[in-house]
Specification:
It is a single chain. The protein is α/β, with parallel strands linked by helices. The chain folds into two domains: 2-217, Rossmann fold, CATH 3.40.50.1170; 225-340, Rossmann fold (3-Layer(aba) Sandwich), CATH 3.40.50.40. Helices cover 26% and strands 20% of the residues. The chain has nine helices and 19 strands. Helix 8 (316-329) packs antiparallel against helix 9. The radius of gyration is 21 Å and the shape is globular. Residues 2-7 have low confidence and may be disordered.
């Protein structure tokens, strides 16, 4: 479907958490400082041509994306919940370093979403002549306001809009710190692409079961999760400390290829020990694209037999957010494992 029209008086809430996009140069001192988002139409006058109602909310203090913590996600979910009935869509301006983590986790925190929640940002400040921030913001706002002929949101999902591409938030990964195309979704095509018009891939966009139902906001997170990246030369001490440590309830193992890890008995023995301790262990691939399949090779089969769950084609960012969400909701490790292998928000191809 191609959309090149605007909606009358759609209302958008612009949420600025921090990040490069909200910076401009202070002519007096020559340093980059945040600008006042209540004056967004003065900074990006192109937005006025849409005739939307655009309100803004700025986090205080602003958050550098490298300092993003789960409390920020809880605040975001709470803000959207409080303002949900007042707006047609939400645009979250966020630093790029942890944007994929934030978009992934928020997708699990909001169940039954009926309105767009679009993350965007930029590689260059919006006040710099060659900035990518204006285009990213304009596209994000237009997508957040877009509706079909029945008045329903075209993209009722948590997404990232960056460099003319809209991708599902829990499929996203930051892949470049220098280029404008900072994010990719290797295992799912874009939900929309912006050119002369915005072309939506309707077949991929998830729709709610009921448009008239209010979403459920899950604002509890259990962050007792560690990540173990398999690498040549990894030692038993490192593996044991991460898998069996007393501070963790779940571990994401980033494995080789289709889900392979060392076949040495010491490694499998530690995995089995962690499983017996009630730890949830999730297998995701280190590869940018592709999927875990623990039924192909002997090492994968051994992990499966040891109690490791299949992460399929989940990104690490999505797996982390999903575990934070499930550990807070599920009463047992078995319930968590069952939900991990279930496609909850379009995060895995299953």
């Amino acid at each position: 479907m191609t959309s090149n029209t605007t909606e009358r008086r759609s209302a958008i809430l612009l949420i600025y958490t921090g990040g490069t996009i909200g910076m401009k140069e202070d002519p007096q001192v020559g340093a980059l400082v945040p600008f006042d988002f209540s004056q967004i139409l003065a900074e990006v006058p192109e937005l006025a041509k849409f005739a939307y109602r655009i309100d803004s909310y700025t986090f205080d203090p602003l958050i550098d994306s490298s300092d993003v913590e789960p409390s920020i996600w809880i605040s975001l979910a709470g803000l959207i919940e409080d303002r949900y009935d007042d707006y047609d869509g939400f645009v979250i301006l966020h630093g790029t370093d942890t944007m994929a983590y934030s978009a992934s986790t928020l997708s699990f925190m909001i169940e039954g979403l009926t309105k767009p929640v679009i993350f965007t940002g930029s590689q260059l400040p919006i006040g710099i002549p060659r900035t990518d921030g204006k285009e990213n913001l304009i596209s994000a706002v237009e997508i957040a306001a877009a509706k079909d002929s029945e008045g329903h949101a075209l993209v009722p999902e948590v997404c990232i809009c960056f460099d003319n591409v809209l991708i599902r938030g829990n499929r996203s990964k930051k892949i470049n710190s220098d280029h404008f195309r900072a994010f990719r979704s290797e295992n799912l095509p874009p939900l929309a692409e912006a050119g002369i018009s915005i072309r939506y891939n309707e077949a991929l966009i998830r729709k709610p079961q009921r448009w008239d139902a209010r979403p459920v906001f899950h604002k509890e997170l259990d962050t007792r999760v560690s990540i173990l990246k398999i690498h040549p030369g990894i030692t038993p001490e490192v593996v044991r400390n991460i898998l069996c440590g007393p501070g963790t309830r779940a571990i994401i193992i980033e494995t080789y290829g289709a889900g392979n890890a060392p076949s040495k008995e010491w490694f499998l023995s530690i995995v089995r020990e962690a499983s017996r301790m009630g730890k949830v262990i999730l297998n995701v691939t280190q590869c940018m694209g592709g999927s875990v399949n623990m039924d192909i090779y002997a090492t994968g089969k051994s992990l499966k037999a040891a109690g490791v769950s299949n992460g399929y084609d989940s990104t690490t960012e999505s797996a982390l957010g999903k575990l934070f969400h499930l550990l807070a909701r599920c009463s047992s490790a078995e319930d968590v494992k069952t939900a991990l292998e279930t496609n909850l928000r379009g995060e895995i191809s299953k």
